[in-house]
Amino acid sequence: MAELNKILDMTPLGMKFTVLKDSNQTGGQSLDLHWELFPGCNMKDPLLHNHPNAIETYEILDGEMEFFIKDKWLAAKKGDKLSVPIGVSHSFRNPTNKTVTVFNTHQPALKMEEYFEDVCKVLDKVTANRTKEFKMDLKAKLYLGVLMSNYRNDIIAISPPDFAIKILGYIGKFIGIKY
């Protein structure tokens, strides 16, 4: 379980999150995060996904970014607030040359903090503890397939398609991938 002010360093993916309130502190009602999205974050093949059992909210604290919600990209700037209902496909990206900061919540928290902690573990595995550049090669896809298969109540891939993620997760587990 993430602790207060814990840094969830996903720098190889262009982002870093700080836990402001974890599910223990909110009685499971939410996971509250401070995001830093670095320039160019998610510009190539961002994970389009949904949360089948949670609402996700965003408040842009500084900078400008874009959100894909349902079927279109929307520009957002400092002060903008967005809410993504349960089950709605979405993604985000930072097309600017400045770091964007965001207040983000998942309501209820479910196991999203564990998911983000596991993303960090997967990044450590596929980058040899951050000594190599992240590449979305077969190894990374298998690890991410295993990861996503462990959190189906929390997050479901839309693009890449869920069936592909399920297959990669099955193969990854079959060959013994663990993070």
For this entry, give a set of tags.
179 residues; alpha+beta; Jelly Rolls; 2 domains; three-stranded antiparallel beta sheet; globular
Write the layout of secondary structure elements.
Layout: E1 7-10, E2 15-21, E3 31-37, E4 48-50, E5 55-62, E6 64-69, E7 72-77, E8 81-84, E9 90-93, E10 100-107, H1 112-126, H2 138-149, E11 156-159, H3 162-174
Antiparallel strand pairs: 1-2, 2-3, 3-10, 4-11, 5-8, 5-10, 6-7, 6-9
Helix pairs in contact: 1-2, 2-3
CATH architecture of the largest domain: Sandwich
Distance between the termini: 16 Å
Indicate the low-confidence ranges by residue numbers: none
- Total strands: the figure is 11
The profile of the biggest β sheet is: 6 strands, antiparallel
Overall description:
It is a single chain. With 179 residues, the protein is of the alpha+beta class. The chain folds into 2 domains: 7-107, Jelly Rolls; 112-174, no CATH class. It is built from 3 helices and 11 strands. The protein has helices at residues 112-126, 138-149, 162-174; strands at residues 7-10, 15-21, 31-37, 48-50, 55-62, 64-69, 72-77, 81-84, 90-93, 100-107, 156-159. The strands form 3 sheets. The chain has a 6-stranded antiparallel sheet with strand order 1-2-3-10-5-8, with helices on one face. A 3-stranded antiparallel sheet has the order 7-6-9, with no helix packed on it. A hairpin with a 2-residue loop joins strand 6 and strand 7. The longest helix has 15 residues, at 112-126. The protein is globular, with a radius of gyration of 15 Å. The two termini are 16 Å apart.
